[in-house]
Amino acid sequence: MPILGADMQAGTLVAWRKRPGDPVRRGEIVAEVETEKGLIEVEIFVTGVIERILVEPGQTVPVGTVLAMIREEGAPAAAAPPTVPPPAAAPGVAAPAPIALPTPARERLRISPAARALAARLGVDPTSLLGTGPDGAITLEDVEQAAARARPAVADRQAQLRQTIAAAMTRAKREIPHYYLATAIDMHAALTWLAAENARRPVPERLLCAALLLKAVALALRDVPELNAVWAGDRVVQSPAVHLGIAISLRDGGLVAPALHDADRQSLDELMRQLRDLVRRTRAGSLRSSELSDPTITVTNLGEQGVDTVFGIIYPPQVAIVGFGRVVERPWSVGGQIASRPVVTATLSADHRVTDGHRGGRFLATVERLLQEPARL
Amino acid sequence: MTRDELRATVLGCLGEVAPEADPARIKPDVSFRDQLDLDSMDFLNFVIALHQALGVDVPEIDYPKLATLDGCVAYLADAAARRA
């Protein structure tokens, strides 16, 4: 069970997309896992063959539990795969409903083609079900109910997400010595360029201001790379890649901050395309495991809620979070004259064990400088 | 396309963006942002959905005219009349 964020303790295996004997390639989706952050697609990080599945759909297991045995490409087939003991119940997670394991000698399964197809689609193992139809036949309702049991109800998921956020933020406030900086940024150049750019673009290719802000943050991290890092207990580990965690609010409450990978290397068009896709999939509850485990810094934008200034709390083990408020017209000195300019307040909350205000200030100054030349982002 | 058809199309596009929204409960004169908590990404997706459904290219400067259901229908009806 992959760890999809420092705050995750357990996950429920919902479905396998592969069977024993199936070849798998690095990066391929092999399973779906339900967490309080939604349904997550689990990627594989080796190429090989699935030898044995160890956790069945419906089981809730702690992070780190081996889900399946994979023989890597070129490795000899294992004569007898090691038996992994069943995992202990995860702390704070209700024990899963008992699941009857498949019985090889069982007689032919009484299940209609429609129910079998539904079971395959929902990732339910029909051999684990007790049918309620005539002569114990497995009905569509049996399959639907089994799938519903495997996925926590929306209300339960919201409560779990709230608990998860509470645990992570409590830990962050307790353990991380935050410092906070804010800079007001003139957005005249950025918004003027954006309006002209969008006026000539077809609707599906238009950009949002958020794409400019994210790109500026990603590029500024090249200048102050110590903010793009994780705290590994007693030392900081800088990341060579910039994976921005984008704080995305969920429609039924709570938020998730999945990774927008390699944001510093994306063009604005590509960044915008990926951002749209990430927001859509986050709200639909279909993220990939790497998107939850990879962020190296978080960016949150609360401007649309009317917020002027964001005082963010760092999401461990990251060491910084960047916030943006709303764009407001303010009096601004331009060439010695007072003019009205659109201004946004950018903030940085950073871990004082890793950086100090001098470096944090440099980072915000770089973001500001980059936003004055939007065509170069 | 009649106004009723336009209204149905607008509600269909909204449904793509905010699937949890109940079309029957959308107040025609209250902004979508206030009713459905749409953000700028949702709104862009809504404009893209309208573009794909009706072939209409709404310039950014006209976005405020699409703030409500009534506003949308009126704007799209005008746009259709201009194109006819």
Quick recap:
Helices cover 29% and strands 25% of the residues of chain A. Chain A is built from 8 helices and 19 strands.
Walk me through the structure:
The complex is a heterodimer of chains A (377) and B (84). Chain A has 377 residues and is of the alpha+beta class. Helix content of chain A is 29%, strand content 25%. Chain A folds into two domains: 80 residues, OB fold (Dihydrolipoamide Acetyltransferase, E2P); 199 residues, Chloramphenicol Acetyltransferase (2-Layer Sandwich). Chain A has eight helices and 19 strands. Chain A is elongated and about 90 Å long. With 84 residues, chain B is mainly alpha-helical. Chain B has a single domain, classed as Orthogonal Bundle (Non-ribosomal Peptide Synthetase Peptidyl Carrier Protein, Chain A). In chain B, 60% of the residues lie in helices and 0% in strands. The interface between A and B is medium-sized, with 18 and 16 residues.
Give a topology summary.
The complex is a heterodimer of chains A (377) and B (84).
Chain A: E1 10-16, E2 23-24, E3 29-35, E4 38-43, E5 48-53, E6 60-62, E7 68-72, H1 113-122, H2 140-150, H3 154-175, E8 178-186, H4 188-200, H5 209-223, E9 229-231, E10 236-238, E11 244-246, E12 248-249, E13 255-256, E14 259-260, H6 268-284, E15 286-288, H7 289-293, E16 297-301, E17 320-324, E18 328-334, E19 337-351, H8 357-371
Parallel strand pairs in A: 4-15, 11-16, 16-17
Antiparallel strand pairs in A: 1-3, 1-6, 2-5, 3-4, 5-7, 8-19, 9-10, 11-14, 12-13, 17-19, 18-19
Chain B: H1 3-17, H2 32-36, H3 40-54, H4 69-83
Helix pairs in contact in B: 1-3, 1-4
